[in-house]
Amino acid sequence: MSITKTKKKVFIETLGCQMNVADTERMLGLLDEIDYVQTEDRMEADLSILNTCSIREHAVDKMRSYMGKWDKTRKPGSMIALAGCVPQQEGTKLATDVRTADIVIGTHNLHRLPDLVLEAEAKHQINLLNGIEPAIKNKGVYASRPQVAEIWEELPEDIPETPIFRKTKYYAWVNVIYGCNYRCTYCIVPKTRGDQRSRSTTDIVSEVQALAAEGFKEIILLGQNVDGYGLDIGTNLAALLREVHKVDGIERIKFLTSHPCDMTYELIETVAELPKVSKYFHVPIQAGNDEVLKRMARRYTVARYMELVNYIRKLMPEASITGDIIVGFPGETHEQFMDSVKVVQEVGYDACNTAIYSKRPFTPAAEWEDNITHAEKQERIRLLNAICTEVAEKQALRYVGKVEKVLVEGKSVRNPDRLTGRIFNNKTVNIECDPALHDKYIGTFADVRITRTNPWALRGEFV
Ligand code: SF4
């Protein structure tokens, strides 16, 4: 007689950027090996993980607020883990400080998660047997729990390859480079993710081949500075794109996030030449003024950035360019801010992420006087957002009436009667479709005529 082992359930809340989403997929892959399956309902989870982000101000407060809430409303006997950038940033002090967590782990040693979970499970069992768990509950939020914590300051020499549980079936994010060698004065990433480490081209191509064999159609090569790929191992992103392009079954390739210092003419020419590579570039400029860029330690000028944009437009007039801009960096004058507005108009971004500057601990800029009032920052971001919306809306109009090849990803979250997908240039398109036909289209490439637009998405119908 065979005994079926009951799977334990894990709930993961992911905060922050695509790197954290990729880490969550790795955590799910690792936990699958010790019999955990994902649940979307925290109240039935045996293990709840908060995958934190430290990119914004008050990240620690936000994390504490989550932990307090989760501790009060958790399935009895279940465990809580704290993972991601906040523990990595704050180090072991935080691990001993947050007593509501059973497990604390940083970004540098994620592969250790299964061991820590098993260790915590054992401690937890002893606790439950000794009747300690109800006592903890009675004491409230910050009662002491037996904790397993590991935060490695240093990165391991060899990054262990970890299993990945992918939430999506048709497109996959593939990490090609970890960390970053730049030291932008506002950015916490080098501390939380370490220096740049590229994966070998052979490993990446093997992973992409395996994904193609599983039926994945689109690959997004991911890195904090993806254009820096290979510079530490004697190759580059253009060469990697050529290798990935050869994989049969993969029909569309994208990469992000670019850095203007490492984006080369060779890379732009390669994108223009390879038919399966999306003509889509996410290249943050962060500020439209050279003085501000210098204080940010971005190491390029606006003129250099515009050279790259113009070369992209020359080779691929239809390309989609998106960017990021920080508003109210310490010392930014009104005139300097207006230079950022000008850049948005000159580039003609398809979309631009904007954010008000906020101090991140452990960064050089956090020591500088933040001399712009909150009201002024609000005023600037309102204006910038209005211009970004206007520009994006104008850009989107170029698609109206055209037929675009769309990878249909699933039902629209806002309106489940519609389907949603992305065109070759990465723009989202929502498609009117009889719900009875949804299954026919999901996961396929389909021709969609674009009928309407708004600044953020297109609307279309199947041809
Ligand atoms: S390039 Fe600058 S902003 Fe981007 S991850 Fe590296 S340090 Fe941070």
Task: Describe the protein.
The chain has 463 residues and is of the alpha/beta class. Among the domains are: 8-150, Methylthiotransferase, N-terminal domain (Rossmann fold, 3-Layer(aba) Sandwich), CATH 3.40.50.12160; 168-278, Transcription Regulator spoIIAA, CATH 3.30.750.210; 400-462, Beta Barrel (OB fold (Dihydrolipoamide Acetyltransferase, E2P)), CATH 2.40.50. The chain is 36% helix and 21% strand. The chain has 15 helices and 19 strands. The strands form five sheets. It has a six-stranded parallel sheet, with helices on both faces. α2 (59-72) links the parallel β3 (47-52) and β4 (79-84). α10 runs parallel beside α12 (302-315). The protein is globular and about 70 Å long. The model is unreliable at 138-142 (pLDDT under 50). The site of iron/sulfur cluster has 10 residues, from α7. Iron/sulfur cluster (SF4) binds next to α7.
What is the CATH homologous superfamily assignment of one domain?
Methylthiotransferase, N-terminal domain
CATH class of one domain: Alpha Beta
What amount of the residues lies in strands? Answer: 15-25%
What is the count of helical runs?
Answer: 15
Which runs of at least 5 residues are low in confidence (pLDDT < 50)?
A: 138-142
Strand order of the largest sheet: 2-1-3-4-5-6
Distance between the termini: 55 Å
Q: Which percent range fits the helix content? A: 25-40%
**Global structural class:** alpha/beta
The small molecules bound here are:
iron/sulfur cluster
Mean pLDDT: 89
What oligomeric arrangement do these chains adopt?
Answer: single chain
- What would the CATH topology of one domain be? Rossmann fold
